[in-house]
Amino acid sequence: MQTPLTIPVSVLRLPRGPDGLSRGFAPDGRRAPPKPEVPQTLGAPVVQESRESQEQQVRAALRERYLRSLLAMVGHQVSFTLHEGVHVTAHFGATDLDVANFYVSQLQTPIGVQAEALLRCSDIIAYTFKP
């Protein structure tokens, strides 16, 4: 479904577990989430997901795709479509923690070129780029 991205992703290494071999917390420790009880009928487990759970999984997948697209845009030329049909291009640099603003450089607007700028995400209708 999704093609893996070739951009390296940093990995957070967890400390050694209580057994000395594993990483992270003990699976039966006090911080471990309780395992849900799954009812079984005729030897086969019944898998029922609520509608909210399915929607949450879809939202999580869309959020992940969006964040991966932001990561892939770093350092590339990006074309933005803003309100009123304004088209601008710039080199994408970064976004803030809330993904409310994009930091760009060499912003080419109909008026001229701005060396550095912040674009409010609420002003952006669409963006495109070629990785």
List the helices and strands and how they pair.
Layout: E1 40-41, E2 44-45, H1 51-73, E3 77-82, E4 87-95, E5 101-108, E6 113-120, E7 124-129
Antiparallel strand pairs: 1-2, 3-4, 3-7, 4-5, 5-6
Number of helical elements: 1
Computed CA radius of gyration, to the nearest angstrom: 22 Å
User: Helical amount among residues, as a percent range?
Assistant: 10-25%
- What is the distance, rounded to the nearest whole angstrom, between the alpha carbons of the first and last residues? 19 Å
Number of separate strands: 7
Structural class: alpha+beta
Low-pLDDT residue spans: none
Features:
alpha+beta; single chain; 1 helix; 7 strands; 5-stranded antiparallel sheet; two-stranded antiparallel ribbon; 131 residues
Describe the structure.
Helices cover 18% and strands 31% of the residues. The protein has 131 residues and is of the alpha+beta class. The strands form two sheets. The chain has a five-stranded antiparallel beta sheet with strand order 6-5-4-3-7.
Give a summary of the structure in a few sentences:
The protein is an alpha+beta fold.
